[in-house]
Amino acid sequence: MAYRFDPDDVRYLTGPAGADALAVAQALPLTEDSLLADLGRVRAVAATRAGAVVETVRLRRRAVGKLGPAAAGWLFTDEALQQATPEPVARHRARRLAGLGVHDLTCSIGADLAALAAGAARGGPVTVGSDLDPVRVLMARHNVAAVGLPPRVLVADALTRTTRGLLGYADPARRDGGRRITSTSTVPAVDELDAAHADRPPVLRVPPGLDYDALARPGEVELVSLDGVAREAVLWPPELAGPARRATVLSSTVLSSTVLSSAGDGWTVTSDEPDDVPVGPIGEFLIDPDPAVVRAHLVRQYAARHGLGQLDPHLAYLTGPAVPAGVRGFRILDRAPYAEKTVARWIRRDGVGTLEIKQRGTPIVPDELRRRLRSALTGPTREAATLVVARVGRRAEAFWCRATQPSPAGGPAGGP
Question: What's the Cα-to-Cα distance from 357 to each of 343, 370, 376, 396, rounded to whole Å?
Fold first, then answer.
């Protein structure tokens, strides 16, 4: 169970005694095997605050990979760290808000606020943060100050107006339960936030699976991914909106391409681009577009940009002679109407020991199919293949493939 911080814990951790205790804990491994002994050593210098000290050091170690090296001196709760925006995503959003005075209405421990406030530190407009949780507010004040920014953080409800002249930004929490994510699936709800700030609609960060088509909200919907994982949807109000829909693809290794629209550390595709693409013919590769492109319903625009065709008008899979930079593709080795016997024959023929299974538009459950094919997977584990089963027209087609690795700019992906 995660440690529950209270305000006195935060005050201790930000004081001289807390700094000394944190230095002691930082020198310890704090692994599952060593934790009991390490806790005893920390208790010798931190007494009843030892749990807070150990939890803080362990959270900081996790945070650096997600939030960058500055987070090595931050304070967190376990839940707040899990919910925090990865640093490249926060930086991208802050870039779009540069030059504006912003009030982060749900600032939590300040991960987004630190990125937003960077402009204020360079002489830009003021940035303010607020949150209902007094513990997180104290942590946010420390974290923003730790990166040399003014700690203007308040305890306040996101639905209560506490500042004037600033553009609101909110990252409402998702409610538990329910597979379908709607405008009422967040706390506060999208409609509540819009009503509370009706004079100047806020920027809202919502789950990427939100049914944003059902929202009667003018502006732009931006789907953002990082390293191939959809991270968020951002609802931009009319004053900041561009095209109706945008997919932004970010990479922590900064794959970029001169033929792609600039997104700082990645690229974008929008609903304003041409979407006239053919269905087929089947090329040398299958291409699985980035999830931000798929969730933003921009597969056709992406295909048109790269000269690709659709496998089927109702599927996100594309096909063509090469794989665009930065995305995963599959070199087609064989193709046939789907049948388990055919797949088992391919496995034995190629001596495959590791099988990836992907499907679109069929009732196939990959894990169940893999179990049924286990007896055929007798090759070495290094011999890998990918089976793609997709409904093309009225029947399920099986594509026997070798996966390619995403390539940097300058050429198509190739090779397994």
Answer: 11, 8, 14, 14
Q: Which residue is listed with tokens 């553009």?
A: 167
pLDDT in tens, 124-174: 678 999 999 999 999 999 999 988 887 789 999 999 999 999 999 999 987
Confidence of residue 389 (pLDDT cuts 50, 70, 90): very high
pLDDT per residue as tens digits for the range 295-342: 999 999 999 999 999 999 999 999 999 999 888 899 999 999 999 999
Say how many C-beta atoms besides its own lie within 10 A of residue 32's C-beta.
7
Q: How high is the pLDDT of residue 119?
A: 60
Rounded to 5 degrees, what angle do the CA atoms 108, 109, 112 make? 80
How far apart, in whole angstroms, are the C-alpha atoms of residue 221 and residue 232?
10
Please say if the pLDDT value at position 407 is more than 80: no
Tens-place pLDDT, residues 92-102: 999 999 989 99
Identify which of 25, 150, 23 has the alpha carbon closest to the alpha carbon of residue 3. Answer: 25
Chain region(s) in the chain for CATH 3.40.50.150: 84-242
Burial 340-375 (b: 16+ CB within 10 A, else e): eeebeebbeebebeebebbbbbeebeeeebeeebee
- Residue 210: pLDDT band (50, 70, 90) is confident
List the CATH code of the domain at 84-242: 3.40.50.150
